[in-house]
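Example (one chain per record):
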Amino acid sequence: MTIALRLPRDAASVSVTRQILGAELEVLGVERQIREDVQLMLTEACSNVIRHANAGDEYTVSVEVLDDKCLITVTDTGTGFDPDQVSPGRPLAEHGRGLQIMRALADDVRFMNRPRHGAIVCLEKTLRFVKDAPGRLLSTH
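Predicted structure:
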């Protein structure tokens, strides 16, 4: 299953994207805690685009569920960034902890910088399903 969205670089798009993904994962029968982790990872990635990408009017989100993996790709058209140069936010800070949160919740996080063409954030999370979940039936195991 793949969901691909082209979104306006607007704060409202973050909530809509989060709700769409949450509903899809719920329909597949993904355990609640895993759904919430995936939604928070996505929210942080999208929020960073809204706050920090300074060029372009849109960004894309692609979510692929393959067997027991959820792969999220968020691509912006900004100037890109170097994740190693981003200083960690303070533990109780309201902002500045997005990369830390993504790294803590995802099984794998990759950042690709495309100077003058934006950044790509790839997040991977292993899914767990409730008993008799439709998502188990879609698995190719």
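Caption: The chain has a mean pLDDT of 85.
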